[in-house]
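Z., the sequence and structure:
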Amino acid sequence: MNELFKINDYELLNQKVYRILKTRIVKGDLKPGEKLLEIKIAKQLGVSRTPVREALKQLSAEGFLKMYPNLGAVVVEFSLEDIREVLQIRRALEGLAASIAAEKSSKEEITKLEEIIEKMSNCVSKNDITAYSDLNGEFHNLIFSVCGNKRLIKICNNLSNSEQRFKIRSLRGNLGRLKYSLKEHQEIVKALKRRDAEQAGKLSQIHIDNVLKNILENESKKKDGKGKDAQN
């Protein structure tokens, strides 16, 4: 029995390390190209190297890290093509989920969405991108939950972490985008409240279109900046 408890404890510790590292990658604390060393992470978190090693393997399997022989784990950088592909899929899922949710949402669920919107508005006034992004994820996850399509939710969950990295990247490149993003979410809630399935789906897709558009614009600005630096 004692051995069984030890195994469970190890598994929980392993998952704890995994969640900490995954959160730091998603939020951009651990940047693309950054090397993650087992011994350093173990020391920082006060754990042995074994749960760290298992956490790194799991993150690698999910595409967040790339494992190199004799080098260790490196945070993966997503290409613009990766971003396009993920957001194209997410666009379709968002539209479908919002359309279904418009027909199924309760007053309590609409109220919850409005409460999230209010918190997001406070984040905009403070330019708190990280908190806004967390609430953004909560908002969209609630819509998927309301739609109740288990297969749709499962597919969405497989994309959500990658998409959060993209959205934070988009918002950091243009703080003005926060205000527009908030307005888009407000309009989606209004459509859900009216039970306008077609409009709710359309607005959700427009929101994802704007996320992609802003990311591409930010990347273009970065390239132009590098080009100017090289000339100077």
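Residues 2-75 form a domain with the Arc Repressor Mutant, subunit A fold (CATH 1.10.10.10). Confidence is low (pLDDT under 50) at residues 1-8.

Let me know what you think.
H.
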